[in-house]
């Protein structure tokens, strides 16, 4: 039979290993869920940043247009004051060039805003992608923890089984009496001390 103390130690060790593996897997899942919530918040902040960049750019462009209109009006007054016709010739050419520069400035501002906005959106996508990878890894680790726990229990069970005899009982001692054989009788002398069979004894 297995030593009861050894059996308890083996069983306890197996259960401890199994529970430790499961606890570690659950802790990984909990951490993954928390990190996923943080990642989603950060991704939304990046999306808000992208929208804010566009809105801010359009507001600045609107302000630029307003300032440019004032500039054109001032430039027209200056041209006329110096004797130039703002609707033709040199005056018109100057105003046209100013308008082209303004349009170029607006295009550049919108382009830069689009680049910055797209960068923020890409950052949001990267955050969500990494979060999904982390969740997949946590689920895989949990599955591995379950397999490890199951393996620990199986190993402990196999070890306990190997500690037992094949029949589950201690093998009995075999004696001449158990085999049905006759043992040689002993005799007691006058002092009461037993001694062996008489010389020439042949059994029976």
Task: Give short descriptive properties of this protein.
204 residues, mainly alpha, two-stranded antiparallel ribbon
Number of DSSP strands?
2
* SSE order: HHEE
Fraction of helical residues? over 70%
pLDDT average, as an integer? Answer: 75
Proportion of β residues?
under 5%
Description:
The chain has 204 residues and is mainly alpha-helical. It has one domain (4-163). Helix content is 75%, strand content 2%. Helix 1 (4-81) packs antiparallel against helix 2 (89-162).
Blueprint (SSEs and pairs):
Blueprint lengths: L3 H78 L7 H74 L24 E2 L5 E2 L9
Antiparallel strand pairs: 1-2
Helix pairs in contact: 1-2
In short:
The protein has 204 residues and is an all-alpha fold. It is built from two helices and two strands; from the N terminus they run ααββ.
């Amino acid at each position: 039979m297995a030593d009861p103390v050894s059996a308890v130690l083996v069983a306890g060790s197996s259960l401890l290993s199994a529970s430790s593996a499961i606890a570690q897997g659950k802790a990984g899942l909990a951490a993954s869920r928390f990190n996923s919530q943080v990642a989603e918040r950060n991704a939304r902040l990046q999306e808000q940043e992208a929208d804010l960049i566009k809105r801010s750019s359009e507001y600045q462009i609107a302000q630029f247009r307003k300032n440019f209109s004032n500039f054109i009006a001032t430039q027209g007054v200056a041209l006329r004051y110096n004797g130039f016709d703002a609707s033709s010739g040199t005056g018109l050419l100057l105003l046209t060039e100013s308008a082209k520069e303004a349009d170029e400035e607006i295009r550049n501002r919108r382009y830069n805003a689009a680049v910055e906005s797209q960068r923020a959106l890409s950052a949001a996508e990267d955050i969500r992608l990494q979060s999904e990878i982390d969740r997949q890894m946590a689920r895989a680790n949990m599955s591995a923890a379950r397999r490890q726990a199951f393996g620990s229990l199986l190993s402990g069970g196999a070890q306990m089984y190997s500690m037992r005899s094949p029949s589950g009982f201690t093998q009995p001692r075999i004696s001449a009496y158990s085999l049905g054989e006759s043992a040689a009788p002993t005799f007691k002398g006058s002092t009461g001390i037993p001694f062996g069979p008489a010389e020439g004894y042949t059994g029976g």
